[in-house]
Amino acid sequence: MRPKRETPGMSEEYYIAPEDLTVFHDESNNLNVRVKGRGEWAKVVVRLACPYSDPEHFVGLLHDGEQIGMIRDLSDLAEDSRALLKQALIKRYHIPEVARILSVRETSNAAVWTVETDKGRREFMVRDRHNFRRIKGRDLIIVDVDGNRFRVRRGAPLDRESQKLLDLHA
pLDDT digits over 8-22, tens only? Predict the structure, then answer.
């Protein structure tokens, strides 16, 4: 049995027991949840407390901006509910992975990056070094001026020129 993991400031009633949760889509394909003894909510939004460092734990369920509750561990859920939540999380948190850096062009107030990702060619602007974040000292997350994220995996097989551009500008 896994040790109980807690997040600071969270009371026990805030967590949803896995056996009490049912996740389903309605006829309009909205994500809905039913929590035994508490109610049912439509158009639920799913958020992760630690999206990059711990994407399987502490999954928040929200309705109209209000927290319904939190799931400690996705693996504890029934298969159908787990699959629907994972699908929603992938949709929300997928980050294109940089396979190659084609160019980085400096302008007066930003750097314009042109990259090849697993989702095709992208061009984006980055204002300063605060837009680069290391996750657990490994992967690099680049956040552009519009809030879009791009991931460079640690140990990714970047070609020499891409690695050189990354080292110079990140």
Answer: 455 567 899 999 999
Q: Cα angle at 59 between 56 and 65, to 5 degrees? A: 155
Interstrand relation of 57-63 and 139-143 (parallel, antiparallel or unpaired): unpaired
* Backbone Cα Rg of the chain: 19
Within 10 Å of residue 110's Cβ, how many Cβ atoms?
16
What is the pTM assigned to this prediction? 0.65
Q: Per-residue pLDDT tens for 125-157? A: 999 888 998 887 678 999 999 888 999 988 778
The residue extents of the domains of the chain are: 12-93, 98-169
At 122, which amino acid appears? R
Phi, psi (5° rounding) for residue 131? -90, 10
Q: Are 3 and 58 in contact (CB under 8 A)?
A: no
